[in-house]
Amino acid sequence: MKQSDLSMRHVLEDIASMDELPVYSPVPMRVHPVGIEAADAFSVEWILRHGMAEPNSRDTRANMGLFVAPGYPPAASAESVKAITCYFQWGLLWDDYLETLMPDLSKVVLAASEANRVFLCPSEDPIPADDVWLNSLRDLRNMLDDCLTQAGTQLVLPEHLVWVGGEVWKCALQLRPELPDVDEFLRMRWFKSGPGILAAMTGPACGYTLTAEEYHMPLMRAFTRAVYAPLYLYNDVLSMAKELPKGQSDMNIVSALARTHDLSPAEAFTETFKLIERMMMVIEPLQRKLLQHPSPAVVQYAKDLPLWMPATLAFTSTSARYLETVGSDGVEPLRLPKITFVDTPIYWDPTDHTPPPYPEISWWWSLLDD
């Protein structure tokens, strides 16, 4: 294990030695009537039926139902919640599959291109009968077509392309000798995480659809990113435990902050939590502006989207995907402490709306005073 990974591991070991790790969550969690267990069981049965996971494997214990069921209000149909849970189960496993194709970027690009073709094209387009990934993705497209409006599907399709492209982007950065600074990392991370798919699915699953103009207006984009960006950076913190044994810890917000600002690993972890909370502080002011919009769909979206925050934080903090880490080269896997959620910021003053020094996200703050 290289020296930088050893230093990061020492910090993670310090965190793991804590009884509890408090994390700020500004929104209380509610659960869709379909329930966490039912949504998860449906998605697990689905991935097993398509041959994407082995029975009783870690993949079947990801608890994707906890990610999706609390992210939707009661207005969402049960069919939508279940289909979207399957979509994100597929996404996690697809992410792992692409890792098996590395370091051959040409294989990654070809796989991503086929995935985009199948998701976009009508079901009559041929795909190999033995391709697990493409056949399951075709099934997903059909499931989503059955439960989302046609207009809603048209918002989802380009976001799928964005996410698949983001996966390729990350793979390319992993192969590039020069590691990304914070701003470049943030540019890639939004695309690679795929939160735009969640955003695009939110309205259609609940019976309303944003127009393309509403969905892409700057205030809406800033609000959407402010809701999701803290969540995938929090995911970075917990993902570090599974990335270290694979030698992938350089492609992480903690490492990017350490490189950019010449920080120790311990300082970089603290700065990561500061940045996460700093982002969260603009959500409520941006939401207030959207609640004054004349479009009922925009107003409802502003109310619904923050439900993803407690859902994602709870999922990331408890999923076997992040907690059942695998050691390598004789290195013991890390075990993380119990995560407790608090309703008061820990690292950032909520009255401080100073924008961070990263152009990729600092423009959100410029909309607070418009």
From TrEMBL:
Organism name: Nocardia colli
Official protein name in the record: Terpene synthase
InterPro entries: Isoprenoid_synthase_dom_sf
